[in-house]
Fold:
Amino acid sequence: MIRFLPLLLFASSVGAQVPPDIAMERSGYVAWLKKAPNSPLLAVAQQRVGDGVRLGPADADIPLPGVEAHRVYPAGSGLVLEGSGGQRPIGRGRPYRIGKYALYLSGPPPGTVLTVFSDKATREPPGYYEYNSSMVFTGPLLRPAAPRQIRVLAADGIEVDATEVGSFVVPQGGGTPLRVLRIPIAGGDESDLEIFFRDESNGDGTYPAGRFVSLVPLPNGQFRLDFNRARNPFCAYSSVYPCPAPWRGNSVPAALRVGERYAGGGLEAVPAQEPAE
Amino acid sequence: MMLALLVQGAVALSSPSSPAGPWRAALDLAGGPLPFGLQIERAERGWRGKLCNGTECQPIDVRLAGDSLVFEIADYAATIMATRRGDSLVGAYSNVGNRGPRVIPFRAARGRWPAFPPPQPLLGRWDATFFTDWATSPRVFELKRGPSGLEGTIISNTGDYGHFAGWAVADSFAMAHFDGSYVYLLTGKLEGDTLRGIFHAGLRTQTPWKAVRSSGAPHLRSPAELTTADTAAPFRFAFRDLEGRMVTNEDPRFKGKVVLVDIFGSWCPTCHHATPELVKLYRRYRTRGLEVVGLAYEVTGDSAIDGRQMRRYRDKFGITFPLLLAGINDTEAAAATLPQLRGFTSFPTTLFLGRDGRIRRVQAGFYGPATGEQYRRQLREYERAIETLLKEGER
Structure:
C-alpha cells in the first residue's frame, strides 16, 4: 500500500512556457553535445581496456583511419598510452588527442572503458517535446529498510557502483513507485539521484529502451521529479555506447511525451540483458 | 534573506555602462543560493576580475561581449556567462562534465554582501558527522568571526575544503566556498547544543550532517597515519625537471640531506596553501641541510602544457627548489609512480626523508590557513620534524 502520493504541483498545461532553469539546462546540454570533445555525437568507438586495446591500423581492435599504431594498456595501477613517440601515462576524464581523434577513459578499474571521439558529429542534437507543467511532481523519497549497493550502467554507458536510496511515487497508474539510485559523479563530493524509467511512449516518439530523469532535492526535505527533464541514455545517440538494462519495476503505465525526443539511430532495440536487480 | 538582497535595488558604485566595481553574486543550487563575491576593474587592455569568498580572492579573466560578461576561470576550464540587465547579471556557471555539462544558474547585483557579526554560540570548533544514505564520515567545522562576517572551513581526514564565508543570524547560518571548480555550501542551525544542517555540493548533492562542540579529543584520523611507506630503503624517484634534465634521489644535492618531497599539482587548491610554507621552510633551514623537491602531477600528460603550468606555479610562489614533472593527476596513475607508498590518496602529500634518504613521516593532505589553529599547529609540527631530522645528522 502506497501511503504517500506525491502532490501534483500544477494544473495540466501542455505547451506552457519553459521555466528558466529547464531552458538553461536544455540549451547548456545542446551546446555541450555540439561542442564538447567528449560529446556522444562524436563517438566512434568504445571498448573496455582489459589487458590492452590496440588503435590505428585496419587490423587493430579499434581501427582509426590515418592514425599510426597505438596501444592503451594497464601498467601498475594506472594506464599508459603507447605510440611510436613513446609511452605516457593517461588518466580518466580528460581527452588525449591522437590525430583527429580524442581518447577518453572512464570508469574505475578493472572496468575502465576507452571511448574514441572524432572531430565531426554525424548527428544533430535531440529535440524536446513541448513543456508540460502537469508532469512535475513533488513528494517524499520512500527509503528502503536497508541500503543496497548495485552495479549499473550510467547514462554514458559506464559501469558505476550505485546505492539504491529508495523510491518515488508518481500518480500514473494509481501510484507507481520508481526506484531511485544515487549515482556518483567522479572526483568529488557530488552525486545524482537518478531514475531510469520506461513508459508507453518508448519506441513511439521516445527512445525504445527508456530514459533517465534526475530527482531534485528540495529545501523542505521533499523531492521534485520533472519528467520534462527526461533525457536519453547516450546509446540513443550512437550504437558505440552500451545501453543500460531497464531497472526492474520502473515502468510508468502512461505515455509520457515530455522531455527529450528520439529521432532514430543508436541502439534500436531494447537490450537483451536482464533487468538490473 | 539572500534572495531579498540579490533582487533588491542596489546602490550603483560606478556608472551603469561600466561593469567595474564589486558584485554580490550567487549560484542558485537546488538547496538554496550559494553567495560569493566578484570584483571587476579596468586593466591595461580590457578588464580583469576577482572571484571572492569573503575577503579571500583569486584572479579571473573577464571579457565584455556586447551586453554580456564572460568570466573565465582558466585553471578549471570553467566559465560564468552572464547577461547585463541594468545593474544585475543573470546567466550560468558551467564546466565540462562526462555526462553533460555541469551548469548552475548564476546571478549578481551590484554591491557587496553585508557583513553580519556572527552570534557567539555558533563560533568555535565543531566535530561533525556527515550522513550519506547509510554511511557516516567525520568532518570538523571551524567557525569564526572574520572581516566579512562568518568565516571558517570544513576539515576532513585529508585536509580542508578551503576558505568559507557567509552569514549567521540568530541560530542559523550559511557559508560557502566557490573557486570555479568546487561548489560548496554549508547551511545549518543550532538546536540546543547541537548543530544540524545540510552540506550542498554542486547543483544538487545534499548531505545531512550534525555536529557537537569539539571536546578536544581527536575526531579525524591523523594525516600522518593515512598513507604508509616502505621505510626500509631510501625513497627512490627519477623524473625530469623543467629544463628536461633527469633528477633522481641519487643526485649530490640530496646526499646526506634532510629532504621534503612535495607531491603536488598546480591544479590543486590545497597545494597552493602548502607550497608557500615549504618555500619558507626551505629558506629557513637550507643552510642547515634541508632540501625540498616538488613532484608535480599535472593535468594533460603533455609535457609542454604541463611544464607551462608548473612554471607559472614556480613563479607565483618564488620556488627555488627543483620541480619535477612526475606524471598526471589521476590518483591511481600517480600511485603507480610511487610504489614505496601505500594508500596514496591525497594531493598534496609531503614526505619527510631523513639524511639516509628513508621516509620518516608521510603527511597526507594539508590544513590550509582557513583551519586557524590547526594550520598553525601543523606548521609547528613540520618545524619540529625538520629540526629533529636535522639534528640526527649533526650528532
